[in-house]
Q: What sequence folds into this?
């Protein structure tokens, strides 16, 4: 009996999700293909009908966060709207949030896998670079300054957000880890000029303006992170 339409893409997505959780938790080298396929109820032998190699799958796992508008995380209560003009501050707050810190399995791969990427092949390193550039682009369009400094500032904020979470995850002292995340968030928001909430004349917080509908569609819809 033939599989229903959409079966193959759905299975491939499930394999990527299974691999992401295992890689984030245990690292690339420690996870076997058997473990990945068992996570979706399939045998080891079916893997190669979807991916050329474990490294090929690894690249797909890396390229999911800022580059795939369909990707959803499980960081409860944390949202980023890519169509909002204040998306930069949303990204920083989400990235350095307590929810992201605690949810290791659903972490952004740039936080969980950088040392593995450095030891991996070209495809994985290119995938990491693509995701980092996408994050920088999202941050850059929220900055008010123009010219080269705007790009440089976005790169610094991205590196501070990723690096801050990487270091916080290594701390055994939870209070110190939380202090570090808070410090990195404060500096990143200050660099972007996002440290003060927008206020209306009556002192109430204002909603950030949204991009025109046509531009919003081009930059993807709401992404839950």
A:
């Amino acid at each position: 009996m033939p599989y229903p339409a959409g079966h193959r893409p759905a299975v491939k997505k499930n394999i990527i999700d299974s691999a992401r959780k295992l890689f984030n938790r245990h690292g690339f080298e420690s996870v076997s293909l058997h473990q990945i396929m068992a996570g979706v109820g399939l045998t080891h032998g079916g893997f190669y009908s979807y991916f050329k190699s474990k490294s090929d799958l690894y690249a797909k796992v890396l390229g999911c966060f800022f580059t795939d508008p369909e990707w959803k995380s499980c960081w409860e209560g944390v949202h980023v709207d890519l169509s909002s003009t204040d998306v930069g501050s949303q990204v920083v707050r989400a990235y350095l949030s307590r929810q992201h810190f605690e949810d290791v399995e659903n972490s952004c791969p740039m936080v969980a896998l950088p040392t593995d990427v450095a030891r991996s092949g070209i495809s994985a390193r290119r995938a990491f670079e693509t995701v980092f550039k996408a994050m920088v682009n999202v941050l850059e369009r929220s900055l008010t300054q123009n010219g080269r400094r705007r790009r440089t500032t976005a790169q610094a904020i991205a590196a501070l957000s990723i690096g801050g979470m990487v270091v916080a995850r290594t701390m055994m002292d939870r209070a110190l880890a939380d202090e570090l995340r808070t410090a990195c968030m404060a500096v990143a928001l200050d660099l972007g000029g996002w440290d003060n909430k927008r206020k209306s004349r009556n002192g109430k917080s204002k909603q950030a303006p949204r991009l025109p509908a046509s531009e919003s569609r081009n930059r993807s819809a709401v992404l839950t992170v």
In short: The domain at 80-223 is CATH 1.10.357.10 (Tetracycline Repressor; domain 2). Residues 18 and 109 are 13 Å apart (CA to CA). The longest strand covers residues 80-81. Strands lie at 80-81, 222-223.
